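The following record pairs a protein chain with its ligand, EPZ.
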Amino acid sequence: MNPYHALAIEGPGTLQGEVTIEGAKNAALPCLVASLLTPDTITIRRVPDVIDIHNLCQILVDLGVRLFESGDRIEITASTLTKDRPDDELVRRLRASFLVLGPLALRKGRASVCYPGGCAIGRRPVDQHLKGLSALGFDIIIHDHAVEIDARNVKPGRFRFDLVTVTGTEHLMMTAAGIPGTTLLENCAREPEVTQLAHMLMAMGAEIEGVGTDCLVIHGKRELGGCEVTIIPDRIEAGTYILAAVASRGRIVLEPCETQHLQALLERLEPFELTFEAQGERLLVDARYRTDGRPDYLITEPYPGFPTDLQAQWMVLMTQVQGDSQILETVFPERFRHAFELNRMGAHIEVHPPKAVIHGPTPLRGTEVVASDLRASASLVIAALIAEGTTVIHDIYHLHRGYAKMEAKLRSLGVRINELTPAVVREPASSPYSK
Ligand code: EPZ
């Protein structure tokens, strides 16, 4: 892991060339957790080299899983699990680690997990996960800093989510896959990452009806087997590079890219009159002759709506459009910390959660900014790309949580970018880089 903490980007620039898209972090994470459901070996290909994946692998190995990495392939065998509670410090680094609760309890009889850390995009409750596990017969014991569940009385059940939750759906679906009988889940998330997990669970021996819809019927099995799975291309990474190319009037080819997963973004970009050419898993985006677009009213929604994970990146583009654009953030109403950093670069954005109003166009100028969360850091990279002068983005650790090799990819696309290492690398004890 690179020890540097900041990136310096010289603007204005543009993106020209080809970019390789990694496997989707948010698909790989639940698929790695699902390996706990079986003592057989699971092989997962196209796993992205990002911090969130490394943290989850550390958690799984700490639980006793045998794990081998070779390039972007991970072989994982959960034949013996030595603990029924993952390491608290590791869990606090990665909210998605809460997903281990159900599968671990099925294997060990009971399990507990400390509450996942909050983060810069607002409160991250887990009430839907717990209500769903209770509907499957788990006894839930709430402790001060952790939750414990007991699997003695598990049974197939029926549960309707009060709201659409991606990892809530994944958690309940994979746990139900390990419970013999038929479980019905309603008001489920339909993200492509949920669909990938469903296909993996079916390859392990579960039967699941309604995949891709908001109503899942899971016919679970006590004994699930091993399988091989290749992770889908990361639609959020692809969307991030597309928005960077559009903002900077560039021309890029993305591969592999599942255009179907990006429909909400591509439709939103129509006013810019871009040139798109999709051939198999290759997508050409030519923004060299784009129009200036027009003000927009964006609402973030669960898939297939516009993804909240592209909201920050979209906001940067709107700072360059003539007129007042708006964003209504219905998934994470507080997810606007990037707006304050963009304003320091010359943007004029008013934030009134769950809304933001972007007054454009405003020329952006390079300055020192601080990343606050994974997608906010991506928006600052795009802003730096179109700003006049040098932008230094601090706390770039956030970027490395979900974007693999981004510096190298941007450099190969023609961006003038440098990695800044502190003169004296003084890592606080809890630093993710500490040994
Ligand atoms: C997943 O988070 C993604 N993470 C997030 O990506 C993504 O932003 C989010 O889905 C929405 O698409 C992974 O897949 C690992 P939610 P998740 O449960 O599942 C509320 C990134 O940048 N809620 O779908 O944690 C919640 O507060 C990350 O890669 C409850 O109220 O999000 C939010 O308002 C960031 N109770 C809404 O539901 C619950 O029990 C949707 O959250 C669970 C969620």
